[in-house]
Amino acid sequence: MLEQLAEQLKKVKDEAERLLAESKTIEAIRQAESRLMGKQGPLGSLLGQIGKLPAEVRGAAGKEINQAKARITELFAAAKTALEQAADKQASAEQTFDPTLPGPVVPRGSVHPVTAVQWEVEEIMARIGFVVVGGPELETDYYNFEALNIPAMHPARDMQDTFWLTNGWLLRTHTSPCQVRAMLRLGPPLSIIAPGRVFRYETEDASHANTFHQLEGLMIDRHISIANLIAVMKLILTEIFHRDIKVRLRPGYFPFVEPGFELDMQCGICGGSGCPTCKRSGWIEILPCGMVHPNVLRSGNIDPHEYTGFAFGLGLTRLAMMKYGVADIRGLNSGDLRAIIRPEQRSGAAIIDKD
Ligand code: DAH
After folding, report:
1. What pLDDT does 133 receive?
2. Is residue 181 within 6 Å of ligand 1 at its C-beta?
3. Position 150 pLDDT exceeds 60
4. Both 66 and 150 in a single domain?
5. Is residue 317 domain-shared with residue 261, that is, in the same domain?
6. What's the gap in Å between 194 CA and the centre of ligand 1?
7. For residue 355, what pLDDT is reported?
8. Ligand 1 test: best mutation among 256, 258, 318, 319, most atoms within 8 Å of CB?
9. Is 42 inside any structural domain?
10. Same structural domain, 210 and 282
11. Cα–Cα distance between 179 and 147 in angstroms, integer?
12. 292, 307 in Cβ contact below 8 A?
């Protein structure tokens, strides 16, 4: 009886092996497995017949069938594992994404030409003891005009078209208000520069923008003279343009300086002989400056009998255009990424809460 059973079990095992050899997918293996191992399958029916066997062989028969069942189950499981591993291997061979490759190179942040020039000037000025200060872009009439010797109704107010706020405040039209703020805050002697954005109610064109950058300079001490002013102006320009720069002073009117000057530099394109860039004059107007007006010193709580000083207003945007050959100011303010140049080192100038 048991021999007969062993033979039937062997047949089932052979059948399992044959089915496994034929099955090429996990799904096919599952189907073959349920066909053999299910209740309706050969093993199921053998188990079902155990009850009809004589009692003394029942235990042994049951054991045999269960052992066979376990072996066949193992065969199916091994076949499934082998197929799964092969599928995994193939999938990873086909995978084009390699997580170990270095990522794409993201361009490093770079510096706007105006910022680059600003940092350069900060660096130069820091070397001769100037510190960087800030000031608010939203200013009062007092600091933007009054304290700078431009009283209400003064015609000089028309020199700078102003964006007025309804509360009487304004968007600063120049960085000069930082002069009096610095005097009040630091007291004499002082050497400061104040770079920043300024605003004018202007129609925009290639050389005019309603928002641009200036850098104010102010040096106050005992015995400061025009000679000091010229020396510092020459130094800045020589360092920025990396060559010796010839300068000349012409009288210029600004209410907050007396005397006031327009400082011209010899045209670097033609060397002074005259070309379209310098409008055939050989000179380029670059730096308005002058000796600080006594009234302005007084606004800054400084005694004009004891102290004198010079001030200048460098047009940073204009300087950047000249240095980097930008013909249209709108290119600098438009957010056009082509205007952005390579990163440069941040200046090492001492900075007092610059905005
Ligand atoms: N604040 C003036 C402007 O924006 C420029 C200027 C002129 C500044 C003479 C100065 C100076 O410090 O001395 O038009």
Report:
1. 97
2. no
3. yes
4. no
5. yes
6. 12
7. 46
8. 256
9. yes
10. yes
11. 9
12. no
User: Residue 234: which of 256, 263, 258, 259 has the closest Cα?
Assistant: 263
DSSP 187: -
Q: How far is the CA of 104 from the centre of ligand 1 (A)?
A: 47
CA-closest residue to ligand 1 atom 14: 174
CA angle 89, 95, 97 (to 5 degrees): 140
* Residue located nearest, by CA, to atom 13 of ligand 1: 289
Residue 29 lies in domain? 2-87
Summarised one tens digit per residue, pLDDT across range 282-312 is 998 889 999 999 999 999 999 999 999 999 9
Residues 297 and 202 grouped into a single domain: yes
Q: Is residue 93 part of a domain?
A: no
Within a domain: 78: yes
Return the sign of the alpha-carbon dihedral for residues 142, 196, 217, 323: negative
Q: Is 309 in the pocket of ligand 1 (CB under 6 A)?
A: no
Cis preceding-peptide flag for 343 (omega within 30 of 0): no
pLDDT for 215 equals 97
- What's the mean pLDDT when you consider all of the chain? 87
- Give the confidence band of 318 by pLDDT, cuts at 50, 70, 90: confident
Do 56 and 158 sit in the same domain of this protein? no
Specify the pTM: 0.68
Residue nearest to atom 9 of ligand 1 (CA): 289
* Kind and range of the H or E run holding 139: strand 138-139
- 79 and 27 together in one domain: yes
Which domain CATH number covers 147? 3.30.930.10
Ligand 1: distance of its center to the CA of 233 in Å? 14
Residues 203 and 127 in one domain: yes
Pocket test for ligand 1, best of 176, 200, 310 (most atoms within 8 A of CB): 176
Work out how many domains the chain is built from and give that number: 2
